[in-house]
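[job 4417] fold queue: 2 targets
>>> target A
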Amino acid sequence: MNLPIIYHPNYVAPMPPGHRFPMAKFQLLYEMLLEDGVTEKSHFFIPQLPPLEWIELVHDRDYIEGYCNGTLDPKAQRRIGLPWSEALANRTCIAVGGAVLTAQLALKHGLACNTAGGTHHAFPSYGSGFCIFNDLAIAARVIQKLELAQKILIVDLDVHQGDGTAWIFQEDHTVFTFSMHCGINFPSRKQTSDLDVPLPEGMDDDRYLQTLAQYLPDLLSQVKPDLVLYDAGVDTHIHDALGKLALTNTGIFRREMQVLSTCVAGGYPVASVIGGGYTKDMKSLVYTHSLLHRAARDVFQQYRL
């Protein structure tokens, strides 16, 4: 068996020229993973559109229908930050299906990686910060509903706090939310995760990894999750346009190895999504995202999953 990687051609939807959301990165990531020999076409899995009932496990029906039909009021649409289109609505739903499939494959094989995902700013009744439906929260709820796992740990290492995810699970002891993020970055109004670790602006590789090591092993021992959902945002990179930390590519690769090997060595299955990344150099951005899949391939082989 080889590392399962999830991708759909509809992970990319047309965007207006010059929009700051780097939509093209999803297809370019798929192409880079093939060109660099990280994986082969036969190792990719294609998600399906999820049933409406899955999305309703987290989001209000009125909001789902309003977004999918393009009838949200302009203020709600502006809060999302992405111009509505039928293609984008379809892409949003496909990405949810991708997160669920990633979780299912992780439970089956021990480790799986999506090539999209990490929409952690979406709340039940509205979207925010380029996030429309919260794929992490929906995947957790679907996996529980299908009785594939009971206790879930969400490890969110995007540079921005996973505020939507924190709010959704604030009263739920079956899902533990851990967010390690830049304390002075978006969102200005933070929610309360089960464990928040706000980081100072400009933190570098070594201090970041030392901080992570102070929390993750103990957290796994404490929570004992049936599944870990990992948001591997690379907007922690020193050159990221929307981040305020100072990680290098080497530091991000070390982070991915640290997270994945710590979980897998302890017997905890990991489903990874790529999270945010906004470096203006598209090729550099795609390479930084690919570090997750390169590390996952190595861990998958090392532990003979």
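>>> target B
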Amino acid sequence: MTPVALTIAGSDSSGGAGIQADLKSFAALGVYGASAITALTAQNTTGVSGIHPVPAAFVTAQIDAVFSDLNVGAVKIGMVAQAETIAAIADGLQRWAPRHVVLDPVMVATSGDRLLAAEAVDALKTMLFPLASLITPNLPEAAALLNEPVAASEADVERQGRQLLAMGCRAVLVKGGHGHGAKSIDYLIDGAGSIALAAPRIATSNTHGTGCSLSSAIAAGLAKGEGMETAVRNAKAWITDAIAEADRFAVGHGHGPVHHFHKYY
């Protein structure tokens, strides 16, 4: 059976992040991708110049259209923009009960532009966290979700991860790409413990869409039947290679995209 994953996220007009990055990630990893678009952005590698939310009722219509026809193995949720959209997504997930939900709590773009309304953060935590198999905040996002300073030690990362886990999700991946040092260390935290996943820190400014792509790669692995730890490890290795090959592209004048199809060209 063809593995299928659904991305519920915003559109990036420059193609490096959002649903475009999600669909590229699914395809690169051998998974058929479907999408439900939550917002349109006028965006390029230098920043976001406009956001046009999709009406919540139409987000619902997209979700229902996909689930009523396709055998969705995993869902990835990215940019949700506003509280009404979050409520619509939560209702859809409760109605269709997908086995795996990977939630990337996208709050700020690589360029620094805000992508989630401040008043929607509580809705994200209360409505979507309890439905998630995994949430994938980076260090600044984890801190913002908890109203705390950015974690400065492994102990702080694990403590913040545990606090997020207590909000109802089944696992947390705190991503270390915004940290310092020779290695980028992500921490996978669940009820059984914590696993540190290290990879070389790559010197490049072409990191647009990294978080979107990693969470989508995890969802792709889950859609193919991989266990959570295996899916996270495989996705981490894949995104590391995609970042390492990013400078082969010459796209835009800001933070360029990663190379999703580095295995093929």
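[job 4417] complete. Note on B: Residues 31 and 173 are 22 Å apart (CA to CA).
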